[in-house]
Amino acid sequence: MNPTAGPSRSIRSSPALRAILRNLGWLLASRGVLGVLSLFYLGFATRSLGVVDFGRFALITGAAQAITTLVGFQTWQIIVQYGVDPLQQGQSGKLARLLRCALVLDIISATAGIALAAAILTFASGALGIPDALRQNTLIFAVVTLLSIRSTPLGILRLRDRFAHAALADSMTPVARFLGSLYALAFDPSIRGFLIAWGAAELATAAAYWILVARGDDLPLLRSVPAEPR
Fold first, then answer.
1. Which of 79, 124, 167, 193 could disulfide-link to 30, CB 3.0 to 4.6 Å?
2. What is the secondary structure of the chain as a DSSP string?
């Protein structure tokens, strides 16, 4: 008798464990795409911009990401934690209110982040090493990044156990950055060109998330709260 047959058979026969491993596989695949393509698009940016301008570019993108993280509510965690029960019990009204609340929090996050970014660029751009010529481009990039907050659609896809779709949407970021960096390399090898590429990638990823959410039944829940059955 093979002593390893029991555990392996147990793993194969456990639906919950298989689902966990499948979802983990999709997450790792998405990270793998990011890791491979980032070697290329970061290399393009480094060689095109040089040390000084790449440092400014990294500062701008890093600051925008930091602001997004600072003001974000991580609403996907709220959806996953509190959406399971109404989903399983068929309480569409309760689920709709939860999703709409999460979306409102994302909008509040984006609004607060835009105000914070504008204030920082107005009063501290010089201290951060951002020249006046780049202030407008930096603000536009920050606005695009904040408007591309996608925590709510991420939560919806994970709540529905659509990890493959979430991984597909996440993969849009490195793919779009790679294509955008090729465009910047050929036509606008400057900080502005690469900011456009990175901003377009954020918009493409957010659009992919919402398109995939639209393929399910959750967009109507965001538009109106259905009446609960009596």
1. 167
2. --TTHHHHHHHHH-HHHHHHHHHHHHHHHHHHHHHHHHHHHHHHHHHHHHHHHHHHHHHHHHHHHHHHHHH---HHHHHHHHHHHHHHTT-HHHHHHHHHHHHHHHHHHHHHHHHHHHHHHHHHTTTTT--HHHHHHHHHHHHHHHHT--HHHHHHHHHTT-HHHHHHHHHHHHHHHHHHHHHHHHH--SHHHHHHHHHHHHHHHHHHHHHHHHTTT-HHHHH--PPPP-
Residue 11 lies in a domain: no
Residue 135 domain flag: yes
pTM of the model: 0.84
Q: Give the pLDDT confidence of 171-192 residue by residue, as tens digits.
A: 899 999 999 999 999 999 999 9
Instruction: Domain of residue 208: give its range.
Output: 33-223
User: Quick check: is 13 in a domain?
Assistant: no
